[in-house]
Amino acid sequence: MKPLRPTMKENKRYFLLKGKDFFEAESVILEFIGILGMTKAGMSWIKKEKTSAIICINREALNQVRASFAASPKDIQVVKISGTIKGLSK
After folding, report:
1. Which residue of 3, 52, 58, 74 pairs with 42 in a disulfide if CB–CB is 3.0 to 4.6 A?
2. 4 φ, ψ to 5°?
3. Predicted structure pTM score
4. pLDDT tens digits for 44-77?
């Protein structure tokens, strides 16, 4: 099987989340943008800690995911968004 060309790959963005309810991030996104939007976003967990987490989102769904966290009554804050995981720590 041939590897994908760089132009065919999905461009990902990494979110650094903080708060008490960050483990409910999937349900917040699902409630706001629905099942079809959730599949387009392609969310995946990268790292979970006690008070923070890093999630990976497709670049095209960036605005919808940010809006879902802003509209949610849960205690989830987007601290930083970056194109690389290393960029979140700077």
Report:
1. 58
2. -70, 145
3. 0.85
4. 999 998 889 999 999 999 999 999 999 999 889 9
